[in-house]
Amino acid sequence: MHRRGGKRIRMMEASFNEQMAESESDHGDSESSPTKSGRMTRLRARGGVRDKPPIIDDDIDDLIAPVVKKRKQYTKQPRKLPAEPRERIEREPRERVERAVATEKETRDVTTDESSLYYIVRHSKSVIATIVDDWIARYKVEKETALIALMQFFINASGCKGKIDHQLPAMEHTATIRKMTEEFDEESGEYPLIMPGQQWKKFKQNFCDFVQTLVKQCQYSIIYDQFLMDNVISLLTGLSDSQVRAFRHTATLAAMKLMTALVDVALLVSVNFDNAARQYEAERLKTRDKRASDRLESLMAKRTELEENMDEIKNMLTYMFKSVFVHRYRDTLPDIRAICMTEIGVWMQKFSQNFLDDSYLKYIGWTLHDKVGDVRLRCLQALLPLYASEELKGKLELFTSKFKDRIVAMTLDKEFEVAVHAVRLVISILKIHPDILTDKDCEIVYELVYSSNRGVAQAAAEFLNVRLFRLDEEAISSAVTTKRGKVRLPNTPLIRDLVQFFIESELHEHGAYLVDSFIDNNPMVKDWECMTDLLLEDPGVTEEPLDNKQESTLIEIMVSSVRQCATGEPPNGRGSNRKMNLSAKEHKVVQDDKQKLTEHFIQALPKLLYHYSADAEKLTNLLAIPQYFDLDIYTTARQEANLQSLLDKMAHIMTIHTDRDVLETCAKTLEFLCTEGSAIYTKCDVARSTIIDQCVNRYKEAIDDWRTLIAGEEVPDEDEIYNVVSSLKKVSILFSCHNLNQWSLFDSLFRDIDELQTGEVGDAVLPNEALIYCIEGCFFSINWALHSLENYCDTMTLTQQLEELRGNMHKYLEACRDLIRHGMSEDIQGAAYMSICDSLIIFSDQLSVHVAGAQHLQRLEYEASAEMQAVINDFVQQQVFAVQQDDGQDERRIEELHKKRNFLAGYCKLIIYNIIPTKAAADIFKHYLRCYNEYGDIIKSTLGKAREINKVNCAMTMCLSLVTIFKEIQAKYNTVRISKAVQEFSDLRELAKRFTLSFGLDAVKNREAITALHRAGILFAVTQPADVLEEPHTPPPCLLFLEIIMEFTNKLIKQDKRLVLNFLDRRIASEMPLNRGEDWQPLMNYRNSLLHGESDQPAAAPKRAYTRRRKDLEHAEDAEDENEDAMDSDLEMRR
Q: What is the pTM of this model?
């Protein structure tokens, strides 16, 4: 690609890659072999002799010439620029020996000289301009002294304590840098620019302000004196090429800020030059008698001076760009690369005539590929203002064509903030060059409206607003009417397009995400009147009617909008970037929206329910709308007639529908309308009682007919079965939201469960679906009875109600336990299992604690027996962790996985709430690795909660899990001595490693738990099973288990390693055979890990040392051993 003037500009990314070939790919820290003794490094060429300089990085061999010539100092006369310095590519530092960390005071005190610029800038409360003025006054008196102070400032700001003496400025700056490098004694690796804390953040800002203010205050004369800028630029250029990261980072920041300040000066010089040139031309064009020759000469001299100054500044900028920026924009330190990208963006925006050129833009384009998110972000932030400027956007056409694909790809960046800025940049490109983006490019951004990150999704919605969802003024002017002549609202075509967009995206479960993306930037998603008209009004002559899919989609979008507007909360998974508490302004918006939607749907909803009364999918969404109403509006707006209409429609729906989703939504909405204390409570309560009466009566009629037929040994037909199942479904669903105990249904519901359990009626039991509803109904009946005792119980009947509830609860849980054990189907077992899990939590020993003045509820507390714990554990092992063949249907497999996760979560809640002992989790933890993809998050959370309850118990449970798997491996291969080469043993080791990671980094906090785990593991490994007879010198059969426990050794502190080693030696033996075979290797490995490299002779076994049984361990040598054996021998868990 050629530019006018014949200059060839290379814009392709390959150029960047060629440059990057010198270092690790994509800005990674370079790695190279250690420097050899005969190698000539730049430090040696300068005369340096340090062997291992702290935080100093050696050069890469390929970039270093055998001898490096001294850098030519930057001078004005002649204005010949020195050769560009070679780039320093940093590599990973050599492994350091341990050293004492510098104290905070030592870190801070780079200098204690209160007269130094560093001390003043860091500690003084004076404004930076005052500090600069003082330095300028000093400079005018004594240049050399002031320059030394300024140079010392840059050295100290790098964290170096070295001091420049008065003789150094007369020398080459390379000598100064070499001397400061040799005196750079900071070993902590920290320096002011990267130090944490507010004071260092303030210093960094003051440092930048100082550099820029210095140039600003010196812009009229001093920067042109051929002394200050020559020396400062030369020093910063040399420091920016240093091996010392602190020098390089600090000097690059100073140089970039210096260039930015020079750009500001150049702008002012340019304005003054234009003014002088205009005044000169005006004076020159005057007639001879009116022309002032002295003024003309003055203006000519002024213009010449300004032109020279501009050339001077441009030379400075060009030199610094080539000497600093070109090498540092791809430095190995991300902070340095980020500084370069930030500042070049500023230069392009301010001094576009000099920097907004393809020869400079290519550096930003190449760096868009940086592997560090913050650097990529700085590139986009530099580009956004350029594309937003009307004056500058015309110069970006070539850049856009070359790097458009990369910018579009960055919308999928793993760093969400980068993705947001990339989408905004694509929006700018779309506005400037709408034809440059292909359909494929746009589709990439389209899909981002479903992103889990709210910022990315909303940015993508902005893109869609620009490209698709814009109101067409021509369409507005040509109004479309419905069949009966009503004019369609302006947003009608947009909503039609939104519905079609949602359908074509094929992500039909993410309607709430789509709405959330548009809710703050497009008012169409709140235009409920427009949506309602589309659903209720017949289409006009020029309109196409909505098909069934479009209607369902529109209703889903409408209900999602209602839900979010009424609550102010984004959908699940989108709330991470949103404040938990609404601000006063946001709260007012929510209240206004809630009032508007209530006023509209109070009138429109009954019509919608009537219109779609036969469509279960649409009714499920529509019936949820009243849950977001402001109920007071029914009375304040005198809408009682519409309330009665709504209640009548709901009663009709409960009568004719059997779809579970419809019935559940209707029951929840009825519960909301019956909120106690609302003005409409009485009317809604009457309607609720009527609905419940109808459902209960139908159930009683159906079950009586069923039992009559069974008693007469007749077979019910399909209608009678349907009546029983459908009526039970409605009763169960209503029971979940409303207290039906006054209709006395528990005995009738439990009777069918009892008959199934006892087998009294043989094969003439209710269908499985009906029995599940019986189980659920009894569960809700028991819980509503408890709720009544907690809130409304009459003291006169308290004892009677307590005993009745206690009896019902006990017989119900026992029946559920038997159903799990001998259930007819997995669905019945699952319903019984979930009821038990929830009931054990509700009726735990905390029941009377959480309710004030409810000591009488202690009689209802229920503790799971060992038998019940075994039953539910077996259920989890069979239903959740058993290996099953996939049926190949994705939807079915997802549903099954969801059900299994619920089963596992129900069991884990019992452990988390300390309902059952922590050791019951051993059979769960052992599946952590094998089932990580399916249940890893649940098991990990349980592991963390168990540790919070009791660290020791949790550690012992881990050990029990490992022991259980070890025994399973023995059983699988039918041998007590398993091979470490089998895959199962490798998996067991990996599981131990995963358990080890869960303990975190605080070894002291976990000290007791880790020690207990090691003791328990040792006991299992060295104890001889009672049914195994071995030769006297044969290793214990489970000795290999020590290699599993060895994974936890790195969590032991040094003192505890010795204690565990002594514990091992007391139980293994005092002497070992001299010819130790491979079977003893696990013991040797474990002991070596405990010794941590110390030389120690392993203990050996005496004759019959391993024939002791567990009962013999109780008779140890001292009381301490007895206590240890009692605690660890059986791996008992403390609750």
A: 0.79
